[in-house]
From TrEMBL, chain A:
GO-annotated cellular components: membrane
Descriptive protein name: Succinate dehydrogenase subunit C
Keywords: Heme, Iron, Membrane, Metal-binding, Transmembrane, Transmembrane helix
An annotated Gene Ontology molecular function: metal ion binding
Residues annotated to bind heme: 31, 73, 116, 155
Organism of this sequence: Alicyclobacillus tolerans
Subcellular location field: Membrane
A Pfam family the protein falls into: Sdh_cyt
TM segment ranges: 12-29, 63-83, 104-122, 142-169, 181-201
Automatic annotation (TrEMBL), chain B:
Family: Belongs to the succinate dehydrogenase/fumarate reductase iron-sulfur protein family.
Organism listed in the record: Alicyclobacillus tolerans
A single GO molecular function term of this UniProt record: 4 iron, 4 sulfur cluster binding
GO term, biological process aspect, one: respiratory electron transport chain
Pfam families: Fer2_3 (PF13085), Fer4_8 (PF13183)
Protein name: succinate dehydrogenase
EC numbers, comma separated: 1.3.5.1
Amino acid sequence: MAKAQSHAEFILRRLHTLAGVVPVGLFLIEHLLTNATATDGAAAFNQAVAAIQSIPLLHFVEFFFIFLPLTYHAIFGLYVAFVSGYNSGQYSWRRNLMFTLQRITGIITFVFIIYHLATTRFSGNAPTYNMVHQLVSNPAYFWFMIVGIVASTFHFANGLWSFCIHWGITVGQRAQRITAWVSMVVFVVLAGIGVDALIAFTHPA
Amino acid sequence: MSTATTTATRKVHLIVERQDGPNSSPYKEEFVVDYKPGMNVIACLMAIQRNPVNKSGKRVAPVTWEMNCLEEICGACMMVINGKPRQACTALVDTLEQPIRVSPARTFPVVRDLVVDRSRMFEALKKVKAWIPIDGTYDLGPGPRMPEVDRQWAYELSRCFTCGACVEACPNVNDRNSFIGPFAISQARLFNAHPTGAMHREERLEALMGEGGIQECGNAQNCVQVCPKGIPLTTSIAAMNRQVTYHAIGAWLHK
């Protein structure tokens, strides 16, 4: 009588939230911290890049710990954004606005990352301070980067809040309220680090 | 005498979103009814029923709606009033901005005017086995007792009357998504907490991990804002997320 339930959707959704935090979120923090070395000058940044380049099996690590989970999170995220409804116009409570913003920033980040990768990682240029400096010297690219940093750090920080609920970590209302504040602090700090580094790159080496 | 005259001249202006049948297109119709002290939206609809004449003086079919208890314990009169899903019986005219805009909860199929078909909620409750099986071929004897500390919060969850306000407000209940809705998750928590209900705990968790299950919740948390009984729906969802997480990992490691 009882049909066997398919858990495929459940597993795909849980993998999506997990991928967003564990490989992708951690990589975001690592990436922002590497960029922050630019505030100490071109030499410090180039040295940080060299340290990353010295990681053994770098292409393997990059593919399995960044590219694969990022692609999954991005593609499945588009599906999530598509099957979500949007009613924050009718119900403008804070959490519902954040629900809408999470999906909007996700899509902005999706577009941002594709262009960002095309102009850096897959541009054929060596990842040096000078390469970044050349890019951000263009005001349009600079502001595009600002939007991308703010959107991606918001998406990550607010995603941490809902990750904690999806995995049953924060159950009570008080716990959820506190993590909501913590997530906004994480957003401001990470966005600050990112924007600060970006401004540093505008100075010639 | 003078107060009687003023109340007699006061009017209530309503804009009702109507629909003649399940497949007809909706239209708005305006009504003006006499104000009575302490009246609710149901009283306005009853006044329209007694004298079904719209604002422009045309005689029309009376507006249909569902109601039962008139004291916010049955859930039947849930409709969208001034943009928010709520019970029409506790929607007091004195507290509402006029004109009062009344429309059916369109997340459900509309039967006629303000009457909607909430069968999907019953289907969702069946899916998560929101009951305690006690029937058998012989007397099973008394069940285990429930600790008082659990009974207190479980009682809050038991106040759900399946009105559908949470389903109406949830952004993830839509035509692209098969989400069963917040109430069903909370009911699964209620029956999992009951010592006898807990004997079927795994079946409810399996159902919650199935199609349209708990994973479809996007934490917009509108449900907890609109619930007329103040049920901590978001806490229930998070608590069931925890049960499901343990169950999923545990089940996988046991195989």
